[in-house]
Amino acid sequence: QVQLVESGGGLVQAGGSLRLSCAASGSTSGINRMGWYRQAPGKQRELVALISSVGITDYADSVKGRFTISRDNAKNTVYLQMNSLKPEDTAVYYCYVRIGHMITLDSWGQGTQVTVSS
Question: What pLDDT digit, counting tens, does each position of 57-85 carry?
């Protein structure tokens, strides 16, 4: 029901910044939490950050203090501001949304590549 399109990935030097965006479309009225996951080559997918419908955030320990997740509910868009990037942040970043509360549906974007050079 929900389609997610990520943008903003790219190549950046260590210490640099990127801002990812994810625009949700389709059946967006019931969006609850939104977030970002990432998967590096040969690694398991990991949660990067989540933001609730009222703006409560959670971050992976590895990105705390460097990444900031935010959302614009009017635009059905979630953002990930990534500062002080490290080579270990290199991964495909996937947008995530959850629809509903007690009964939920999850949707995923196609991913956007973030590469941090040393």
Answer: 999 999 999 999 999 999 999 999 999 99
